[in-house]
Design brief:
Length: 423
């Protein structure tokens, strides 16, 4: 999905910017393209996020100010004037619908062209949706040519009379997407693309082998936890649940009677998601709301955290089962996002999900501020940059392919003309 509002001129074509608008933080990643497969991270911008609840804009003015602050820090950090961004979108309102489409190949040589794929996808988009819902993305699962299935790569260049596709259609609320888009463009930047955050994160924390053999990714953010299931290299299922890091912090606030800032601090410094992982159950001092020191222990804090994290993984397990390929996930589960950093989270996830669990850290970077973004909290921001790079490469590939086809046809005509000249 592309929404543009021309405001600040042009941005260097080799500069890509990812904008992760989260419930608790705004993250901006600025990168420069080196070649088709390599990018340098030029700068990072972060700001506290205000005006969102579970991924939905509830106060546009506060959200806009938060985005502005993160963009300005990224510009200062990178030395780049940001003109356009790729934006991540998530939330528990995101839905995944399975559908299919079929078209006839009507060109004279029956060779499948890029235009046929576009027509096939457009055909898949023709379905009845509620008036408040729009299509975010269409993800082909499998192509079928004249009844021959099992084609998972693009069939461009193959021969056929009838082309079918099984697809996953990702939908979201029109109002939520529009509200977020307006907040971004109000900051004076254009939107290059709007990308589903689980898809973006998968570009930075999953490799192609994992996606092929089967893997589930759980991105635990501040307001929502997003689940994405991959098999045979494509997204098979996605869902969002409205329980994430914020609720863990709120539970600590209410249980211990402390401020949100203090709750976040002790969660980071002393928190465990699994009580049995604590080796030294020592007392910790916390400041109450009235600034009176109070004693608690690591195990008490861990019990509070574990109860809510258990909810997250139990609901995630249900969504993974809903994908109908839970038994085919040979690469297990990858957890990422800020909520995955609490000690013992991996072990709790393994206990509940009954699968191997690994921590997802952004990879696939070649230069610049690599070390600074090797953290799960940057998974979506880095993923947005890598997703944009792939999209640009795909467009260039199509252009080269069309140019090659034109040159081939030109060569054929020249040979035919030469043959007639000889006669």
């Amino acid at each position: 999905m592309t929404i543009k509002k021309k405001t600040r001129g042009y941005q260097d074509k080799k500069v890509i910017v990812g904008l992760d608008v989260g419930t608790t933080k705004i993250c901006v990643i600025v990168a420069r393209v080196k070649d088709d497969n390599n990018i340098d991270i030029l700068g990072i911008g972060k700001a506290p996020s205000f005006g969102l609840h579970r991924g939905i804009v509830v106060n546009p003015n506060k959200t806009t100010e938060s985005i502005k602050e993160a963009i300005e820090e990224a510009e200062l950090n990178s030395g780049v004037s940001i003109k356009s961004v790729s934006v991540g979108i998530a939330g528990h309102y995101i839905r995944c619908i399975q559908s299919s489409s079929i078209i006839g190949i009507n060109n004279s040589d029956r060779i499948i062209q890029e235009e046929d794929i576009v027509r096939l996808i457009d055909q898949a988009k023709i379905l009845k949706l509620p008036s408040d819902t729009t299509i975010i993305d269409v993800i082909p699962q499998e192509y079928i040519i004249d009844g021959k299935d099992g084609i998972f790569e693009t069939p461009v260049g193959m021969f056929g009379v009838k082309l079918e596709a099984r697809v996953n259609i990702i939908t979201g609320l029109v109002s939520s997407i529009d509200d977020l888009s307006k907040c971004v463009t109000s900051c004076g930047v254009d939107i290059d693309d709007i990308v589903l955050e689980p898809i973006a994160s998968s570009y930075s924390v999953l490799d192609e082998t994992e996606k092929k053999v089967g893997v589930a990714m759980i991105d635990i953010g501040g307001g929502t936890s997003d689940i994405a299931v991959f098999k045979k290299g494509v997204l098979k299922y996605t869902a969002g649940i409205g329980i994430a890091g914020n609720l863990v912090t709120n539970d600590i606030v209410e249980a211990l009677g402390i401020s949100e800032e203090e709750a976040e601090r002790i969660k980071r410094e002393y928190g465990y998601s699994l009580v049995s992982e604590i080796l030294n159950d020592e007392e910790i001092t916390v400041q109450s709301i009235r600034d009176i020191p109070r004693k608690t222990s690591k195990s008490i804090l861990a019990r509070i955290i574990q109860a809510r994290m258990q909810d997250i993984f139990e609901l995630s397990a249900i969504e993974i089962q809903n994908s109908q390929i839970a038994k085919e996930l040979h690469a297990g589960v990858v957890i990422t996002g800020g909520g995955s950093l609490t000690k013992g989270t991996k072990e709790l996830a393994e206990k509940i999900l009954g699968m191997e669990v690994n921590l997802g850290i952004p990879t696939g970077l070649t230069g610049g501020m690599i070390k600074e973004v090797e953290n799960p909290i940057f998974a979506t921001g880095v993923g947005l940059v890598l997703h944009r790079l792939k999209s640009m490469n795909d467009v260039n590939t199509i252009k080269r392919r069309k140019k090659g086809q034109t040159l081939t046809l030109k060569g054929i005509f020249e040979k035919v003309k030469a043959w007639f000249d000889e006669l």
